[in-house]
Amino acid sequence: MGDHDDLRKFITDLAVVHGRVVLSSGREADWYVDLRRVTLHHAAAPLVGRTMLDLTADWNYDAVGGLTLGADPIAVSMLHAASAAERRLDAFVVRKAGKAHGLQRRIEGPEVSGRRVLAVEDTSTTGGSVLTAVEALREAGAEVVGVAVIVDRGAGDAVRAAGLPYRAAYTLADLGLVA
C-alpha cells in the first residue's frame, strides 16, 4: 500500500466516530471525522504531509497553513515532508481573531505578504473556516493559490464559488461514509 491508502486506513480506524454530533457549521450528523486523532498521531502525521504534498504537487506555493486548530498539524506535517524531500516550504497559522497584545498579528509564522500560499483544513462541510483563513491571508497580502483538505464533507462548491481551486485527499465515499 502507498501513503494515500495507508492514511485512509488510519482515518477509518482512528478518526471516524459514530454518534450524534453538532458540526462547527451548526449542522447535525450521525458521525464525526475527528482528524486530529490522525494529524497528531506519530505514524499518521508523516503520511498526512506526504499525501497533501502529492495532492497539490502541480500547484506553485511556498507557504502552507490555515485557520487554527484544524490546519496547524497539517501545515507542520507538510513542512516536514517537504524538508525531507529537500523542498523549501514554510508553514503559518491563522488566528480566528487578531491578538490584542505583543505584535498583534493575525497570521503567525513567516511573513505571507507577497507570497503564494496554500490554505489547508482537516475536514470541511461548508468551507467557512478555510474561507475565513483565505480572507485573512488576502488581507495580509498573500496570493492564495488554492484550498486543500484531507476530507471533504461538502465544502467544494462554496470554495470554488469564492474563486479558488479546491482539492480533497478523500471524499466521504472514499471513507465509506454517507453525508
TrEMBL record:
Q: Gene3D superfamilies, per this entry?
A: 3.40.50.2020
Q: Which residues bind orotate?
A: T125, R153
Principal EC category = transferase
Q: Does the keyword Phosphoprotein apply?
A: no
Which parts of the sequence bind 5-phospho-alpha-D-ribose 1-diphosphate?
R95, K96, K99, H101, E121, D122, T123, S124, T125, T126, G127, G128, S129
| Limits of the Phosphoribosyltransferase domain | 57-157
Query: What's a Pfam family in this record?
Result: Pribosyltran
Q: In which pathway does it act?
A: Pyrimidine metabolism; UMP biosynthesis via de novo pathway; UMP from orotate: step 1/2
Its EC number(s): 2.4.2.10
The domain of life is Bacteria
Recorded GO molecular functions are:
glycosyltransferase activity
Required cofactor names: Mg(2+)
Instruction: Fetch the InterPro entries from UniProt.
Output: OPRT, Or_phspho_trans_dom, PRTase-like, PRTase_dom
Subunit notes for this chain?
Homodimer.
Family assignment from sequence similarity: Belongs to the purine/pyrimidine phosphoribosyltransferase family. PyrE subfamily.
Which HAMAP family does the record associate with it?
A: PyrE (MF_01208)
What is the name of this protein? Orotate phosphoribosyltransferase
| Source species of the chain | Plantactinospora endophytica
